[in-house]
Amino acid sequence: MQESDLPKAALVHQSAFVRQRHSLEWLQCNFNAFPRYLIYVAEIEEQEKSTIAGYIIWVQKSGFRPEAVLELEQLAVLPEYQGKGFGKALIVESLPMVKQQLAQQDSVLKHILVTTRADNFAQQLYRDTLGAQVESTISNLYSADEVLMIARNVGDRI
Questions:
Q1: Each residue of 8-41: pLDDT tens digit?
Q2: Is the keyword Protein biosynthesis assigned to this protein (predicted)?
């Protein structure tokens, strides 16, 4: 993500997370936290116009470690592009860039955490794409029950 992408990415955030507020400020503070926060966008060109169709936020957890534990903190896709493979593409295409950033810090990828609503169909995407499994359910955390999923020992597997 470039700083110039923030306004368009904020529109994605607003549409994907309707209970959250201050989308631009939220993304701006995450953007400013590089390299702890690594953010990538899916940009498409339509009729000579560029659109941010979605974004992904990866977070390095618990310090910069030799074996990094990442959280897939947020994955968002505009409603009109959902179900068309953008979420999977954001995960699959951003991970090599994440791993490259980790290598610059003399680190390798160990585990990936994901938390999501217990009723979110994206759990299947996280299982299929990352190999993440539900480890626990947290009752009434945000707007409903959340599940904590972990893809363990991903290393070179992903």
A1: 999 999 999 988 899 999 999 999 999 999 999 9
A2: no
